[in-house]
Amino acid sequence: MRTPHKKNQNVPANSSRREFVTRSALWVVGSVAAATVGSPKLFARSSRKSDSRDETDSFQVFDCHLHCPAGNGEKWQWYKVTNGFEDFVSYLDKTGVQRGIINSQRSFGTKPEEFIAGNREVARYVEKYKGRFIGACVVNPLYIEESLKEIEYCHNQLGFVWVGELCNYMVPYLYSIREFELLVEHVVKLNMVLALHTEQGELEYVAQKFPKATIAFAHFGDDHEYDDIFRRIDTVAKNPNFYLDTSGYGHDRVGVLEYAVKTIGPNRILFGSDFSINDPSTVIARIRNSFLTMEQKQKILSGNLLELLKKVQTGFA
């Protein structure tokens, strides 16, 4: 989730913007001279002007990062335009998102009765739109006993295989607390996916502490976008159990998606939009217009998420 918040992590910048611009200019000159040699294999080359929009339009779009409005209405849009779940679905239709993993804004309340009620709302929407949405369970580890029971109930009784997105800054709590460790252990035991919002320091801690967990980290960047974005991608690349979604910070920076594919590989980047906060269309456009092959685009838009869900849900189709 990308909402205004503060963190106390201070990370030195990799380089100044002036140095960046100077290096970029030199790179352009070198690129012109080397044009006849060829471009990296990462980029698709074709005699056509560009990839056919009709081809990418035929791809399914499966969003791993959706926050649906609570039963009593939308809470997070700065100016509300999709007030209820029907509006939420209609806007997804407009943007071309056919399927998604949803959690309820109500579940981000701190107390057990709030996150449980939100998870039940999600279950009702999943049932009503059977085949379109997959439910995600949101809990608060500060109420660890209730959270563990709720995760187990959502998995065993509701068929959920996704926990999160957990956003510690909203409660708040630290990912270093014992209760969160118990939560992750339970998620691993149940073979579920854990979706997390992290700053870079938190991402590095979680990656080192929980290497066996299957984690979908939200956002290419964080609040220190320019300083951390490449470090975040590099950290995720080191563990085959980790995935990165395209939502929020960084996807609109031309070249970042291509760097992620080159560094992590094309199989562990998931399409995520962070709707109803952010517009899925912006992420879809960046993927469709990217310097990636058609196969890589299809994997990111839906294929990778489908493969991940098959790993954690028996008989998923």
The coarse overall form would be globular
Detail the poorly predicted runs.
Answer: 4-40, 42-52
For the report, how would you describe the main beta sheet? 8 strands, parallel
What is the assigned CATH homologous superfamily? Metal-dependent hydrolases
Give the CATH level 1 class: Alpha Beta
Q: Multimeric state of these chains?
A: single chain
Order of helices and strands: HHEHEHEHEHEHEHEHEHH
Second rung of CATH, namely the architecture: Alpha-Beta Barrel
Kindly describe this structure.
With 317 residues, the protein is α/β, with parallel strands linked by helices. It has one domain (54-312): Metal-dependent hydrolases (TIM Barrel, Alpha-Beta Barrel), CATH 3.20.20. Helix content is 43%, strand content 12%. It has 11 helices and 8 strands. It has helices spanning 17-33, 53-57, 85-95, 112-128, 144-156, 178-189, 200-209, 225-237, 256-264, 280-288, 294-312; strands at residues 62-68, 99-104, 133-137, 162-167, 193-197, 214-217, 242-245, 269-270. Helix 7 links the parallel strand 5 (193-197) and strand 6.
